[in-house]
Amino acid sequence: MCFVDGDRCEGDWKNDKQEGKGVYYYNSGNRYEGDWKNDKKEGKGIFYYNDGERYEGDFKNGNFEGKGIFYYNNGDIYEGDFKSDKQKEKEYFIIVMEIGKWVII
Asked: What is the pTM of this model?
């Protein structure tokens, strides 16, 4: 299905709403792949930003909510709890390359 603003979506539908598994392509270049309930992101999914960043984890009522991992385009990674699209805690796991092996700082 395509929308007037250029967004488009693929996947399961129920009563003219996204329900089940699906992919939503935003005209901005962002993309969501995952679970839908009553036309909202709900359950497990991945949200890809057009700048290379991404969030993998739980969604509720269309927002990042619960456990998840956010991958920043500068290489930083946050793994923890989210509420209403925001990190609940300031715990970063920064992974760097050191002489051919990965090190967690």
From this structure: 0.82
